[in-house]
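so my prof wants the structure for this chain in the C-alpha cells format not the other one, which i didnt know existed until like an hour ago. anyway here's the sequence
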Amino acid sequence: MKNRSSLRSLKNRPNSIVVRRHGAVFVINKADPRQKTRQS
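here's what i got, hopefully its the right format
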C-alpha cells in the first residue's frame, strides 16, 4: 500500500472506492489491488 498526498487521480479510476477509516482516507480498488493507497 502506498501513501499519497493527493488521491484525486485514483478516485476517478474505474471500480475505486474512497473510504475514511480512523482519521485516514483510503482508496480501495478490488479490480486493481495495486492502486490501494492511503492518505493520512
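also thought this was worth mentioning. DSSP finds one helix and four strands in the chain.
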